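The data layer described in this paper is built around a simple, fixed record for each protein. Such a record has a labelled line for the sequence and another for the backbone structure tokens. For reference, a complete record is included directly beneath this paragraph.
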Amino acid sequence: MSPDQRGFSTLLKKEIMRFWAVLAQTVTAPVITALLYLLVFAQALQGRSVNGYDGLSYTEFLVPGLVMMTVIQNAFANTSSSLIQSKVMGNIVFTLMAPLGPLDWFGAYVIAALVRSVLVALAMLAVTWFFVPLPVREPGALLAVFTLSAATLAALGLIAGILAQKFDHIAAFTNFFITPLSFLSGVFYSVHSLPPFWFTASHFNPFFYMIDGFRYGFFGQADVPIFQSLLWIAGAFVAVSAVALWMLVTGYKMRR
């Protein structure tokens, strides 16, 4: 293994071990939170006139959306929290001094976030299986949407972590951007039940395509064609990755 490869693998191992050491916070806690949403909304709205997909119960409709919403939030949190923690504690200097290129940084942080996202998704699907077992009708689409979505939010987390100077900045980014777009993405409803203005606005929310495409992987049904969802998600991934890599290449707000 070359020195560059050792640097990448060491950073990747460090990022995985960082969240692995506190699985109760990084995996268990998000699953419990999502289960609370499931219990409250499924019990409150099951059997009522809430639009989902034809032939599906509301609980079946809800579970994939909750899984993807949790994946989105955790992929973002993994990279952003790691970077801001290193910056605040001052130990980021040791990583900056290592023989690591921008692609090493990007790859290690994004892959670690993908690993956490897989663990969170599997844990949620295992627990919700007791409520409603889900079919997987389009596994290829499911895997593509999941990977692109988690990678997009991981790259966005890199941007937030680089821009942030303290933990409050990450919290603001989460509260004013990640959480609102997650809740307005169709997790708890089909966008076809919205008034015309909000129906149109939803189609400019990239999180909507992540949720909708993920549901398609399970049921083979979606509010928009799967290729449209994949194009939106892939476009978002390319855009945020380009910005993140530019920041890493230039050392923007990193080498000061």
Notes: The chain has a mean pLDDT of 89. The chain is about 75% helix and 0% strand.
